[in-house]
Specification:
about 35% strand, about 20% helix, five-stranded antiparallel beta sheet, alpha+beta, 5 strands
Length: about 80
């Protein structure tokens, strides 16, 4: 299955955007909010890093997501 990735233009629009989790994943509860902090181009498009500020962790959790994961698990806040 091919991974759906962001375009360069979509990535520029999304960095620093606030988002909210719609599903529980990677240790993040539903409704948790944070922002997209950076992007990377591994191959064939971009993935974005979401930095979650979780109270039970000393450091923020950074989770890399594809466009498909973004569209199904996150909501722009």
């Amino acid at each position: 299955m091919e991974r759906v990735r962001f375009t360069k233009e979509e990535t520029k629009e999304n960095v620093r955007r606030r988002i909210k989790a719609l599903a529980e994943f990677a240790g993040v509860s539903i409704g948790t909010t944070r922002q997209i902090v950076e992007a990377d181009e591994p191959s064939g498009g971009y993935d974005v890093a979401v930095e979650w500020d979780l109270t039970r962790r000393a450091k923020p959790l950074q989770d890399w997501v594809t466009k498909a994961e973004y569209e199904t698990r996150l909501l722009e806040a």
